[in-house]
Amino acid sequence: MKYEILGSSFASYLKITLNIGETIYAVPGSFVFLDGEADIEATGQGLFNAIKRKVAGGQSFFFVKYTAKKDNTTLILAPDSHGMITPIYVKAIPVIIQDKCYLAHTSGLKISTTFVGARGLLTQSGFMWLKAEPDMGGEGIVFVSSAGEIEKIAIEDNEVKIDPKHIVCYSAYLDVGLAKFGGVSSFLFGKEGLIFSVKGKGSLWIQTRYHLDFERYLDEIKNKKGG
Description:
About 10% of the residues lie in helices and about 50% in strands. It is built from 3 helices and 17 strands. Strands 9, 11, 12, 14, 15, 16 and 17 form a 7-stranded antiparallel β-sheet that branches. The N and C termini lie far apart (about 50 Å).
């Protein structure tokens, strides 16, 4: 499998070239273009995970599986937000991903839901996020999409603070908790009140913007214009 990340940092897209038998999994709705032949099917996480996610207030997470039927099959995928696509190599340490930032992953990885608790209420992803980890000793790449620019930050036994909406993903072994930011006036009159505190040793990927609930955004504009 070969891949290229093309376009601008404002609107990038992912070009995948597969040889016969190679597979890529992607979020539904990300398909743009196919040149070649591929088996295409929907695949999920299993009944238990789907129920667990629904009970937690989210939605069942499914993938579209593309398996090439001939060499040099080209597939183009694109996220629904304006921003960058970044490949993250997962070999030993799992990565926790805000589900709105997931785009695709290669064979060798297992993607499952993971419970992040009340921390998730500060984002649009809810209680359940995604966990990318090696499958049966394998390794692979998970492609994430950000809103705006994306930056990888190395955490070396220090502590950083971040607005949770700006998290894309992080190493699973980092200690991520809630912290208060600013005083009472900040909580009441500004957007900063509770934030994430991240410490330990690992990597943190952040985005300079955050994914909007587009339908809600359109409703707000409509209401401001008086219908």
